[in-house]
Specification:
alpha/beta, seven-stranded mixed beta sheet, globular
């Protein structure tokens, strides 16, 4: 599994022969990539805020994966994504996306889309992406990445996502103000018991400016032995290769 961060909450995930793009928003200071340089098979949206769906309209023809409300909104605003209008799913569900299994999990946040019309995207979410279908039988060979979306610290991480979905790598917002900051994100890393942790959703706007090294220090402070990796924009991380060490 290969993970590439394009700044803010935008991640490209490759599982086998399947490419997934999460929360496309390339108008951020960490990347110069033209959105149309990427050709994902699936487009995953955690929620409907503008800094998470800003470039959805650049991927017509890509299968959209989001809550039914958000799929409906994007179809109305940006046109149909495929013959069935995308793949609507909801919290707790797992869908097969090519070589990947995508589980939608809770996020503690808001999800208004267009406040002038009162539109909502349903529940905000995170995604757990794995190369095997999640079951109660632990699979040491599987590779799993958790994209938390925009969220605060929540016991769901400790009680459900960590012990049952067993993420190997986690991407967590650290910007504070609109999401949790470095201290709460560090607790989340500890609860999730992941091997690798990546900060995201920071330095895009003045209210969320953060030094990601503060996140690494907070992870150390909670006594967690996760490997914190601070990626540069457009930098990739090969989970398969790193996990073999």
């Amino acid at each position: 599994m290969e993970l590439t961060w394009y700044g803010h909450s935008t991640w490209h995930v490759t599982v086998g022969d399947t490419d997934l793009l999460i929360d496309p928003f390339f108008d951020n200071p960490k990347t110069d990539t033209d959105p149309e340089e990427l050709d994902p098979d699936y487009l995953l949206l955690t929620h409907g805020h503008a800094d998470h769906i800003g470039d959805v309209d650049r991927y017509e023809g890509t299968t959209l994966v989001a809550t039914p409300e958000l799929v409906g909104y994007c179809n109305d605003e940006f046109g149909e994504y495929n013959a069935v209008g995308g793949m609507g799913m909801n919290i707790g569900g797992t869908v097969e996306c090519g070589d990947a299994f995508v589980t939608m999990v809770r996020a503690d946040h808001t999800n208004g889309i267009d406040t002038s019309y009162g539109a909502t995207g349903g529940m905000p979410a995170g995604f757990v992406i794995s190369d095997t279908k999640p079951t109660q039988v632990s699979d040491e060979e599987s590779e799993t990445f958790y994209h938390a979306g925009d969220t605060s610290l929540m016991v769901e991480m400790r009680e459900v996502i960590g012990p049952f979905l067993e993420p190997d790598a986690v991407a967590l917002p650290i910007g504070d103000h609109f999401t949790m900051g470095p201290a709460q994100a560090a607790i989340a890393v500890d609860w999730l018991d992941a091997d690798f942790a990546f900060p995201m959703h920071y330095d895009t706007f003045p209210p969320i400016e953060q030094d990601p090294e503060d996140f690494a220090k907070e992870v150390d402070a909670v006594g967690c032995d996760a490997d914190v990796r601070v990626l540069e924009g457009e930098e990739s991380f090969d989970l398969t290769e790193e996990s073999s060490y």
